[in-house]
Structure formats: structure tokens, C-alpha cells
Design brief:
This is MFS transporter. One of its GO terms (cellular component) is plasma membrane. Pfam families: Sugar_tr. GO terms for molecular function: carboxylic acid transmembrane transporter activity. The chain is mainly α. It has a single domain (2-389), classed as Growth Hormone, Chain: A (Up-down Bundle), CATH 1.20.1250. It is globular. It has helices at 2-15, 21-28, 32-60, 62-81, 86-114, 120-148, 150-172, 179-183, 189-197, 201-232, 237-248, 251-265, 267-290, 296-312, 314-320, 331-359, 363-389.
Length: 396
């Protein structure tokens, strides 16, 4: 429960700004460069923290990092809620991003070491299930806060992230340190990094590229979905946040399906199906928009299906697969580098969605449909390479 609530807090804090982007743009009228920075700042912080936090967790322990990252959520939330200017708000999102990056590294590394090998994939998928709830709650709270008044809604939303982050702290305090880490030799950080780099580019291709390709679309949609829905459906920002709750709710049954199917299909096959089906849904959506077919119900259904198939496959597999390869001494660093590649993809996706509507309507959805289809192809190609060259060292 402590790990699940931690991931819920992370995902909530990622998405907390999303329902407020339209409000912030309307209230303060910042320039487009600032809005791009605000949308990507949490991902920039997460990317930096993933690279640094992974080796730190290998050297100093899992629990120390787990407790520290929740404090960054609280600090970032307080600064954000009390922001005295737009640059303070931007800084608060970077601080929150540091906690997100640390959390997604250490939670799954720790989980992979305390769960039995056979049950680890499905139990880690259950932890990832709570990420969906975090984003849904963030959208719903944005919907509620927007009804209070646009002048206060963004401050209330960021302040609520402090409350959400505070809940898991006392749960984490009761967790034991990973026995596997306690038994391992704790090398200096530079030795950990050197050993990870010596693993070779082939290993990073297996785990990092699919995570990168998936996050291009996932983070772009997660950050801009309330704003996109309010624009494409011609509704208010408040209603856009409400529709986002409905669309994102499709990830709940999808997550249950992933937990059931992972043992039957395996993670690679599940990842392939999710990538291809998500890409097909988004491709159809982009065609509808490009053809100027104004069908609001079809728009919502296709977007919901895209979220369903993403949550059923690569949303889970790309995060948990890297923990299964490396040993205890380098597991955090390896997970961190893999996660950083995903955060980089997320930054590119957010920027693409910011620019795409001005280039061609529907082009953002078209772009991420291609990245998803590419993810399916890469999964097949890399899966074959992995089976032939890495099977002896990767139990998954």
C-alpha cells in the first residue's frame, strides 16, 4: 500500500497543473515559451532526478531516497500554491519533478527486490494501477477547484498535492529496507555508473527505446488533455477537466486487464498489442480531425480507447521491465537511465502538442500514433534480439 500510494502521489503531482494550464494562460497571459517551460518543467526535473537518483539509491539504500522524494512533493506544492510570480511557479514544478523522477526509479526497484520473482510483474502492475487513479483524481480535483473560481483554482490544485503526498509518509516509515540491497556490496556512485555504462548499448535499446517512444504520446496527452478537450469539443476549461476524467477512467479496467493478461501473454507480447492498438486508435482520431469530421462522441471514444490500450500494455511494461535485468548493485542506476529516456520522450511530446495545433489540426495525434506504431515494431525487433542474446541473463 505504501508503494501504491507513493505512485498515486507522483502521478497526481504530474497532472496537477494540467487542468490549470488554460486558466493560467487566461489569467496571466504569459508568452508561449513560458507555457512550454511550465508544461515540461516537471518532466525536466524528473529526468535529472532519474539519472542522479538511481545510482544514489544503489549506494545509499532504497528507503532513504523513498522518504526524501515525498518531501520534494511537499516543498514544491507549498512553493507552487504560494507562488509570488510565474517564475516561482515554474521553479515549484521543477522541484515536484525531482520527486517524481526519484519515485519512479526507487519504488519499482524496491518492489522488484521484495516481491517473489514469479509474482513481481503482476504486483508491480498493481502498483502502476494507482498511477491512473492519481491522474484521474488530479483532473477531477481540477474540475472541482475550477468551479470555486479561476483566480484560486490553480493555487488550490497545487496545494492539494501537498496533502496527497503527506499521506504515504507514515506508511513508508514502517517499511523495511530491501534485504537484497542490505546483502549487496555497496560501491561508490562512480563505480555504479561505470558498470552500468559497460553493459553496452544493446541493453539500453531493449528497455529505453520503448519507454521513450511511449512517453512521447503519454505525457503529451496527460499534460494537455483538459486543454485539448476544451478546445476540440468547444467547451469551457472546467468541462474539459470533467471530460478528461471520463476519458482517463478507461485506464482502470485496462489496468485490471494488464494484471490478468501479463502471466498469459508475457510482458513483451502485451507491450506489442498495447502499442499497436493505441497507435491505430490515435491514427483514426487524427484522420477524423484532418477530415474535419466534427463528431464529438467519436472523438471521446477514440481517445478513451487510446488510453485503454496504452494502460493495458506499454504504460506498465516499459516501467517495470528494466528492473528485471541488472543486479542489485546497479539496478537503481539502470532503472534511472531507462526512466530518463522516457522523460525525454515526454518532454518532446509535450512540446510537440504545444506546437502541433498551429501547424496542422490533428497533427499532434498523428505524430504520437506513429510513435506508438513504431513502438510496436521496435518491441518485436528488440524482443527477438533479447531472446537470442540476453535470455541467459534476463529471467523475464
Amino acid at each position: 500500500m505504501a508503494l501504491s500510494m507513493s505512485i498515486l502521489a507522483s502521478s497526481y503531482n504530474i497532472a496537477a497543473i494540467s487542468p490549470q494550464l488554460g486558466i493560467i494562460r487566461q489569467l496571466f497571459r504569459p508568452g508561449p515559451v513560458y507555457m512550454d517551460l511550465l508544461a515540461t518543467s516537471v518532466l525536466i526535473g524528473a529526468m535529472v532526478a532519474a539519472v542522479v537518483g538511481g545510482p544514489m539509491a544503489d549506494r545509499f539504500g532504497r528507503l532513504r531516497i523513498l522518504l526524501f522524494d515525498l518531501l520534494t512533493f511537499i516543498l514544491g506544492g507549498v512553493i507552487g500554491a504560494l507562488s509570488w510570480n510565474m517564475w516561482a511557479l515554474l521553479a515549484s514544478r521543477v522541484v515536484v519533478g525531482l520527486g517524481v523522477g526519484l519515485d519512479y526509479v526507487v519504488v519499482f526497484v524496491y518492489a522488484s527486490e521484495i516481491f517473489r520473482r514469479g509474482s513481481a510483474p503482476s504486483r508491480m502492475m498493481l502498483i502502476m494501477f494507482f498511477a491512473n487513479f492519481g491522474i484521474i483524481i488530479a483532473y477531477f480535483s481540477g474540475f472541482l477547484f475550477d468551479m470555486v473560481g479561476a483566480g484560486l483554482s490553480w493555487r488550490l490544485e497545487l496545494a492539494s498535492g501537498v496533502v496527497v503526498a503527506a499521506i504515504p509518509i507514515w506508511l513508508r516509515a514502517r517499511l523495511p529496507e530491501s534485504y537484497a540491497w542490505l546483502q549487496a556490496e555497496h560501491r561508490p556512485v562512480r563505480d555504479v555508473v561505470r558498470r552500468v555504462m559497460e553493459m553496452g548499448r544493446g541493453l539500453f535499446k531493449v528497455y529505453s527505446i520503448p519507454w521513450f517512444l511511449y512517453q512521447i504520446g503519454d505525457q503529451g496527452l496527460a499534460v494537455y488533455m483538459p486543454y485539448l478537450l476544451s478546445s476540440d469539443l468547444h467547451v469551457t476549461f472546467t468541462d474539459g477537466a470533467g471530460y478528461s476524467v471520463i476519458v482517463k477512467a478507461f485506464t482502470i479496467p485496462a489496468s485490471f486487464a494488464a494484471i490478468v493478461l501479463v502471466r498469459r501473454l508475457g510482458m513483451l507480447r502485451l507491450q506489442f498489442i498495447g502499442f499497436i492498438a493505441r497507435g491505430a486508435s490515435l491514427l483514426m482520431l487524427s484522420i477524423f480531425i484532418l477530415a474535419s469530421l466534427h463528431m464529438d462522441l467519436a472523438f471521446v471514444i477514440l481517445l478513451a480507447l487510446a488510453f485503454f490500450f496504452g494502460a493495458m500494455g506499454p504504460d506498465k511494461t516499459t516501467v517495470i521491465r528494466p528492473t528485471g535485468w541488472s543486479d542489485t548493485q546497479t539496478r537503481g542506476a539502470f532503472q534511472g537511465i531507462s526512466e530518463a529516456s522516457g522523460r525525454l520522450g515526454g518532454i518532446l511530446g509535450v512540446l510537440a502538442f504545444a506546437v502541433a495545433p498551429d501547424v496542422l489540426p490533428g497533427s499532434g495525434f498523428l505524430l504520437i500514433s506513429f510513435t506508438c506504431l513504431a513502438g510496436g515494431v521496435v518491441t518485436v525487433l528488440i524482443g527477438r534480439a533479447k531472446a537470442s542474446s540476453l535470455a541467459s541473463v534476463d529471467p523475464r
